[in-house]
Amino acid sequence: MVKKAKVFEIPTLRNKTYIFRDRDEAAEVLARMLEPYYKEAPDTVVMGIPSGGVPIAVGISRQLHLPLDLFIVRKIQIPGNPEAGMGALSFAGGLFLNQQLIDRLGITPRQVEEQIQRVRKELAMRNELFRQGRPIPDLSSKTVIIADDGLASGFTTLAAIRGVRSQGAQKVVVAAPTGSDTAIERLSADADEIFCPNIRSGYYFAVAEAYQNWYDLEPQEVISRLQEAGYLNESEGWNKAAA
């Protein structure tokens, strides 16, 4: 029998839309859910997925007094359709491929490999931009809280989970303000716990519909958020976000 993650939600928010003012308010809601279990927890680190997951991770780190870091993950685009993904890859090497979709679209192994190599270059650039080129942290025996602003398909988060596992993480907790029930189910076999106050079902799902004020974060805003948290002011290692 496959062990599934324990899922924490807020039942009154099930299938609701436009419930968070913005990412900052969503981070506060998530932090309150996590607080009884993880405030000042030893050997625990919050790792945000840029770009949208950075405000979420910063808010959780600050409220729970936990170290902050980033985990760089990008979707692997379908050739000729940059908006759609056939998988995801993390800077640490965590890889997920939607083989069923790849087979259905007739994408060749060579095309898959070309897209993977393209994503690897982008991951290296984003690691330099947002993490100042720091090496992948040693997560041995640590609890890692992976934070993002939403779980649509869950593929990107799945690659992140596998990435932090490859770095030795003992326990993996996914924290996102909103998510589809499909993504929750997809992640439940790999994560230990999932905190998602707003779970929605149905054929159509958009992360943006959980937020009254939604926009894509530009790199400079991500950098500013990290500087305010003190993360980019340190030359190496983790730091604690300001209380």
Describe the structure in your own words.
The chain is globular. The chain is α/β, with parallel strands linked by helices and 243 residues long. It is 36% helix and 21% strand. Helix 1 (23-38) crosses helix 2 (53-64). The longest helix has 23 residues, at 109-131. The chain starts with 5 loop residues before the first strand and ends with a strand. Strand 5 (81-90) and strand 6 form a beta hairpin. The protein has a domain at 6-71 and 140-227: Rossmann fold (3-Layer(aba) Sandwich). The strands form 3 sheets. Strands 1-10-8-7-2-3-12 form a 7-stranded mixed beta sheet, with helices on both faces. The chain has a 3-stranded antiparallel beta sheet with strand order 4-5-6. The chain has a two-stranded parallel sheet with strand order 9-11. The model is unreliable at 234-243 (pLDDT under 50).
Secondary-structure blueprint:
Layout: E1 6-8, H1 23-38, E2 44-48, H2 53-64, E3 67-70, E4 73-78, E5 81-90, E6 95-97, H3 99-105, H4 109-131, E7 143-147, H5 155-166, E8 171-175, E9 178-180, H6 181-187, E10 193-195, E11 198-200, H7 219-228, E12 239-240
Throw out a few tags for this protein.
single chain; 243 residues; Rossmann fold; 12 strands; disordered C terminus
Query: What is the spatial order of strands in the main beta sheet?
Result: 1-10-8-7-2-3-12
Q: Please tell me what the overall shape is.
A: globular
Distance between the termini: 42 Å
Helical percentage: 25-40%
* Radius of gyration from CA coordinates: 17 Å
Main sheet summary:
7 strands, mixed
CATH class of the domain at 6-71 and 140-227: Alpha Beta
- What class would the helix/strand composition place it in? alpha/beta
Tell me what portion of residues adopts beta-strand conformation: 15-25%
